[in-house]
Design brief:
This protein has a single domain, classed as Jelly Rolls (Sandwich). It has 1 helix and 10 strands, in the order H-E-E-E-E-E-E-E-E-E-E. It has one helix at 2-12, and strands spanning 18-22, 34-37, 49-52, 61-72, 78-85, 92-100, 103-105, 110-112, 118-124, 131-140. The strands form 2 sheets. Strands 1, 2, 4, 8 and 10 form a 5-stranded antiparallel β-sheet that branches. Strands 3-9-5-6-7 form a 5-stranded antiparallel β-sheet, with no helix packed on it. The chain is globular.
Amino acid sequence: MWQLARLFNAFIRTDRVRAGVFPTSADTVAATPITLTAAAAAWTWGSWAEIVAAAGVTAEQLITHIDIEDIVAAPGAEGEIQIGVGGAGSESAIGTVTINEAQPNFPMALHVNNATRIACRLRTSTGIADTCTVKLRTQTGF
């Protein structure tokens, strides 16, 4: 049976697929999540927050999930997190994730090229500067 598994992995290269998390840490301790802050007006995007610099993206990535922690918002608030790529001040959105009661809706993986800066921003329905912290789960070697 193990021979069949090795043949399968060799054929479709699943043995190269690796899971990761951004931001990363230089040591074995998990990196601190990045804080996003919504603008103080309902459904207005806050500023982009860098998740990882271009130099930290050393291979093509698929962003497969977003971990949202420490949401500070009014009960029943809704929001969106936008994921973008590009240099500071010139980010381009590649996906938007709807959040409701801290549960993200992540319908598909997002492709990011090697050596590309990744950033996120937040907007909510409340009209105050709500916050949350995020990490991105990724895959490489696909």
